[in-house]
Write a structure and sequence with these properties.
582 residues; Potassium Channel Kv1.1, Chain A; 4-stranded mixed sheet; 4-stranded antiparallel sheet; 15% strand
């Protein structure tokens, strides 16, 4: 065994120098083929491979391989195997046995001819590379000057010279004559791509004609597939939507795990999804550990306050908390939460979501009971060093389902006439007569009381529309909606829940018969200080909330949508209050 080891030890240095010379030229070829044709390793990645090979040669020539551990020896061996495999792939590409292309690469080198200088025998000399086009052989396929193509069912006719115009394109390689192409039953050469945009590819090759902006992204995908690098470059420098796409792609690459973050936001929105309301996803960055545990009072020094604070933003807790410091892949670029959330919202809108965002601050503060009781701290015992100013970003998702239901309800009103009776009342002059409101005797299942200045109240009209659609009731749609609308709350609740008498304009909607409805309206008007409102007054108090509902619940509409829909919300409420008998 010792004799075998000694013989190998003596043989390795003799083999190492020829291996190094051979590997130097081969590494150059490997770098070109791997980078240009099959996969895109960066020069730094190639440097790691080269470093590994040099380490193997150094270990072999100096006998240092004896000191390598089993793990190190195995890793170096794997590096060598990887290089050998890529040598073989590169030579296959050079012979034309493999077609593997990447968009935006350099021209294809069909054969590499090594030209050695007089100092070639020096171990530090790198051979130069020269492009040589292989001559045609007898086995090459001869194409006619006019080519009929079937691209995904779309038929095109073009010249052979057009298809071969760009030598580094896939079309030029396909029609070089070295590859057998698939044909359809009519004998046309078949290309399995979406043919709707292939005409723009041909027009660019023929006369440098750029596609219209509306089709730029689709043409970009085809240009990348067919490796029309000049078209790709022009689109990336002139098309706004392509420029935007490249910027988004660049930003995505800067944020680690960006796709996971985006999907987490979408999944959270789906969990909170409601068909007639927006869903909100709260994203926060900080974790206020200083607001947890037992902390002293800096004012009186008498008491320790136990705190287990969880930030709340407008009543919502955080759904997603990212790491405290965003660490982009490039260390010289700073990305804050505002930029990240703005980009995510832009991506969501681009993907078809109706989304918006806003900043919300947690206003939590700790109170010391001793200070509050003794009056030593007039600000109510607030511990200033223990205030929370954590900022969260709330992303709102809005759906279009409810808008479609509202339009259906508007359509039904033109064909149906449910018996709806209404009257609006002004409670602004009522004082301490709440008991009289609660003593009113009426069927709460058939009467609805809505505060005209409250978005939540007005939106109940539209919630009733949605419920009627979802229930698929056998009752007429125009009658089902007011039935669902009628069982909301009493007049007292309408005033009490939304700020007492600060917003005292109440619309009473009844689906009882005319006699019962008018009796109820008379009872309400007889309460001291209550006055009936005119239709003009009703519309005046509604107008502000109608616009807010459209904004908050249906998102921002384009000018075209506004012309088409004409504010269906306003149409519904107008029809409900404009006539007692619809």
């Amino acid at each position: 065994m010792a004799a075998i080891v000694n013989r190998v030890t003596a043989l390795v240095p003799k083999v190492a120098l020829p291996v190094a010379r051979y590997g130097q030229s081969k590494l150059s070829r490997f770098w070109y083929f791997a980078r240009v044709e099959l996969r895109p390793p960066m020069p730094s990645e190639f440097g790691e491979v080269q470093k590994g090979v040099q380490q193997i040669v150094k270990s072999a020539s100096t006998g240092a391989w004896r000191q390598l551990t089993v793990k190190q020896f195995a890793l170096n061996g794997l590096v060598g195997l990887e290089v050998m495999f890529w040598f073989y792939i590169g030579e296959c590409i050079g012979r034309g046995s493999i077609i593997g292309y990447r968009p935006g690469r350099n021209k294809i080198q069909l054969q590499l001819k090594t030209t050695l200088s007089e100092e070639q025998h020096s171990t530090t000399q790198t051979p130069s590379l020269q492009l040589v086009i292989l001559p045609k052989t007898q086995d090459d396929i001869v194409f006619p000057n006019v080519i009929d193509l079937n691209v995904g069912g779309y038929h095109y006719t073009t010249s052979l010279s057009t298809l071969r115009k760009y030598e580094d394109s896939m079309l030029a390689v396909m029609f070089s004559g070295r590859y057998e192409l698939v044909r359809d039953k009519s004998g046309h050469i078949f290309i399995d791509r979406d043919g709707r945009h292939f005409g723009h590819i041909l027009n660019y090759i023929r006369c440098d004609q750029m596609p219209p902006e509306s089709m730029a992204l689709d043409v970009l995908r085809e240009a990348e597939f067919f490796c029309i690098s000049s078209l790709i470059s022009k689109l990336e420098s002139s098309s706004p939507c392509v420029i935007s796409l490249r910027r988004r792609e660049s930003f995505r690459r800067l944020i680690p795990d960006y796709e996971h973050l985006k999907m987490d936001i979408i999944n959270k929105s789906a969990e909170k999804h409601s068909s007639f309301q927006e869903s909100r996803v709260v994203i926060t960055q900080l974790d206020h550990t200083k607001l947890k545990g037992t902390i002293p009072c800096y004012n009186c020094s008498r008491e320790f306050v136990t705190v287990n604070h969880a930030c709340a933003f407008d009543g919502l807790t955080a759904d997603i908390q990212i790491q405290q410091q965003l660490k982009p892949i490039q260390s010289d670029i700073h990305i804050d939460m505002d930029k990240l959330v703005a980009f995510v919202v832009d991506e969501l809108v681009h993907d078809g979501f109706k989304a918006s965002s806003e900043r919300v601050t947690c206003r939590f503060s700790v109170r010391c009971q001793s200070c509050t009781l003794s009056g030593l701290y007039t600000a109510g015992g607030i511990l200033a060093p223990r205030e929370c100013h954590n900022i969260a970003h709330v992303i709102k998702f809005m759906t279009s389902e409810f808008q479609n239901h509202v339009e259906s309800f508007v359509t039904s009103l033109t064909a149906n006439a449910p018996q709806i009776h209404y009257q609006a009342f002004d409670f602004s002059n009522v004082s301490d007569n709440r008991s009289k409101l609660t003593n009113l005797n009426y069927d709460k299942n058939k009467v609805s009381c809505l505060n005209l200045e409250m978005i939540a109240d007005m939106f109940q009209v539209f919630a009733a529309v949605h419920s009627a659609v979802e229930s698929k009731s056998s009752r007429d749609f125009g009658i089902e909606v007011p039935h669902r609308l009628s069982n909301t709350r009493s007049i007292g609740d309408a005033l009490r829940v939304f700020g007492g008498y600060g917003k005292p304009y109440v619309l009473v909607v009844s689906i009882q018969d005319r006699v019962q409805s008018e009796e109820l309206f008379d009872k309400i008007s007889q309460i001291e200080g209550v006055g009936k409102m005119t239709t003009e007054q009703i519309q005046e108090h509604m107008k502000k909330n109608l616009d807010n509902i459209r904004k908050y619940y249906f998102g921002t509409m384009s000018d075209e949508e506004l012309r088409v829909h004409r504010n269906p919300i306003g149409e519904i409420v107008t029809k409900m209050v404009a006539s007692k008998n619809l």
